[in-house]
Amino acid sequence: MAVYQWRVFEKDGTITTVDVEPSDMPIIKIPGDPAELEELGFDLLNICKVADQFCGGLKITEAQMISVGGYHDIYELRTDSGDSKVSLIARPFLAPLLDEWGQENCSGMLLSEVAVMTLLRHTSTIPVPRCLSHSVSDGGNPWILLEKCSGVASECMRSAVSKEAKIRMLHEFADISVQISRVPVPSSAPIGSLQSFDTTMGSVQVGPLYAAGLVGGAGPFPTYQSYISYLVKRAEEIMGGETCKELQVIVALAERLAPSEDDRMWRPTLMHGDLDPKNILSSNGHIDAILDWEFHAVVPAFLALDYPKWLVNEGITDRRFAPMCLDGMTCTRSWVETEEDAAEYRRIFAQSVSALDPDYMRIVEAGSNARRLVDWLLQWSQYEPYHTGFAAWRAYIEGSEGV
């Protein structure tokens, strides 16, 4: 029997519902069978021993995988003490990723995430999980141990969620968005991810950029132009040397789409990078935690500030341009809301965020097409339907904006 239902809208407006079943992943007893633990590919027993230090004298007695990820699996570690049960979250890097990226890059991304979560907990009231421990020791999978937060993921996608709860989430998300934009980073920071944060000195260092789809870290990039040039070169590599006329005009297009030399537009600004509903835990619209900060970035404000990701209907997520699958029948994208409801919720978010920061929406609007261009480049594909969608979008913005 399903625990709950997700509801999404297809390109043609039809509704697709997905029944989410209870987890059927096996429970691993701790200390358990050494052979079974060996098959996991990482040292779960050692993580549990570290976790014991944060359980108030209790011991971890079982672990269960609760989510399968592209970069790391997520395990819930539990004590067994009746009503006083304690649960923590462990995220070890996957062995295949460790083989592809190498120890240094995987460790760098984990330390970057630890740095940004520490910075956020010191400088804001954004609900970020507390990092209890982490390891980047040579010869082992890097891992991070976090407190378990309350709330459920992707609540706004659930069929049973009320409109009132969605609106409540938007107001809270507006406050979080403004707080993220005000996290202090150096005014001379390049485009990249946090490399370190010194809690004593309050100093922040920005290093290589970690983003979904990038193999290891890239950069840091001293300018917007150098960042775009890198993304174009990466897209050309994805094409395997094939000529793609769309890529030949992007650098010049990016220049035209960038806003004026307004300091507020270009101020180095923190962004989450992966704020899908799955990374927001909430309870009846109240946001309990923002998860998964590994793909955060420091970028110019016009690339950082945006509407909630699940309400955006522009660029690659615009129903007119979203790439089709190779079968030509189905779309590679689906949407959390109808076009009409998404527009209403965007207006509510805009009003809420503007009450907190009058400049916020001015920056969102000024950087709209530049952000959408970066979206296309970060998700670049060698398949023809992708190029068709991008070409249609580019023709539209060049006509509507006169760029």
Automatic annotation (TrEMBL):
InterPro entries: AGP_Transferase, Aminoglycoside_PTrfase, Kinase-like_dom_sf. Residues 111-295 form the Aminoglycoside phosphotransferase domain. It comes from Hericium alpestre. This is Aminoglycoside phosphotransferase domain-containing protein.
